[in-house]
């Protein structure tokens, strides 16, 4: 036997190895269960919480609940808000199991967050980072994660984190054994992460930083060559996401026209903001104040200057230890997609949000905990067991803060009112609170909230549009039209204002003008069902029933629950002597609203015309 060949293990050694693996597996189960219990207790205040803002845009809508809907999730851009097919497939299966039960979605998020924390522990342990378990627990119960875990829409964060850390573990295994199967598994997990949220595109760069921290030569082909396809996949995911943000979500217009210098100011301030919230998570809120940054203001350059200075200082210390610079690079690099260099819709009302740093916070937490673990023996020499007591106290304080803050996410009204307590100038919160009151049939109270939004932001096109909507439905058409026009002066890309102005013009008999606004709304949002239905009504008024029926069918593919659209389509079908098809639409309308008077009258008309019985 040569020295290069492994020595055969004896029976006793094999037995000992199996026992060690068994014990490790059992310990992992205990750690995973313990993390889940801690997370569940810290988030007890959301066990029975409901849906909040934008959740209806993520929980699978009726138009996508079929097998064909699942196909559309994967192969049709615009079928979902963002092209995250893995995420929306998960929502599809969840809805198939428990429907609109909000509590079930919350428990899924709790489980995914717990699993992500456990996998994070496994990654840290694999890398032999000091304090791996404590870092994972701090990540699990840190209040900066509340916005992600308590918000159903942010299942994209928790699900992508599970795949992100799983891909990291698989890569580390491949890096050891160089087996094709390990590489295929790691790549598949990375693709699943990208399909859940594109912020995970930073993973291949993060793996290079980890390799550098370990003392590896980054010129080694065995290191960078296998990661090259990952960088390609990451670039594609980033381009698609940026395009979707502009084309389908609306991250364009005056509010997003930022100069390169302004974007640099945002990035510098955001880095310190996020780091500060990890170190001291005080003053957390759902929407933070929108910074007014002027490149001509010398003081605005202090945060980016300090950030660059800190990186330079850590670079000069790399010969002593690469760890601090590695942590800084991982933290900033993981945050990079949300630092202001690319347009994302939330920048309309705030340049920072807690859910932006969900993954990045894990890195900084690991670095801080590792540093504390290094000095813990010194503390214990002064006060015995002080390090353990401090760790328990830290977990307890963070868990209590998480429990208290998570209660803000119990329902929409609570969320918006708590947001306004911390950020009284949050015009978006006033707008959304007004929308909530309007849905509760409280137009006067809603109007007051919209007025407050304008006080906070005089050029708030959403508030002008909302005020116009209230006035229009109160029969004050002449007062509503100037509000819609003002909204469009501020933001010509406001599809809702175009649609509402079109409705008001249609009611005044200005059919051609109305049609122009409906068509413009659809240029901005091609899957805007309300504008499609309104354009169909215009074409029907103009006598083009064939095009009108096609438009109604197109809109019903997007919004199959519109009773009014089905009744209007049935009326056109009946006019075209297609009583059987009209009956099918009426049946569908009555299935949605059995007591709808207009649908019932039309059902009688269809029967009299000889359509088949129900």
List the helices and strands and how they pair.
Elements (H helix, E strand, L loop, with lengths): L10 H32 L24 H9 L9 H14 L3 H25 L5 H10 L4 H4 L5 H23 L2 H15 L8 H11 L7 H29 L10 H20 L22 H15 L6 H13 L22 H25 L3 H21 L5 H11 L4 H13 L3 H14 L4 H13 L3 H14 L4 H13 L3 H14 L4 H13 L3 H14 L4 H13 L3 H14 L4 H12 L6
Helix pairs in contact: 1-4, 1-5, 1-15, 4-5, 4-7, 5-14, 5-15, 7-8, 8-10, 9-10, 9-13, 11-12, 13-14, 16-17, 17-18, 17-19, 18-19, 19-20, 19-21, 20-21, 21-22, 21-23, 22-23, 23-24, 24-25, 25-26, 25-27, 26-27
Task: Give a quick set of tags describing it.
614 residues; 27 helices; mainly alpha; disordered N terminus
Tell me about this structure:
There is one protein chain. The chain has 614 residues and is mainly α. It contains 27 helices and no strands. The protein has helices spanning 11-42, 67-75, 85-98, 102-126, 132-141, 146-149, 155-177, 180-194, 203-213, 221-249, 260-279, 302-316, 323-335, 358-382, 386-406, 412-422, 427-439, 443-456, 461-473, 477-490, 495-507, 511-524, 529-541, 545-558, 563-575, 579-592, 597-608. Helix 18 (443-456) runs antiparallel to helix 19 (461-473) and helix 21 (495-507) runs parallel beside helix 23 (529-541). The longest helix has 32 residues, at 11-42. Residues 1-10 and 12-23 have low confidence and may be disordered.
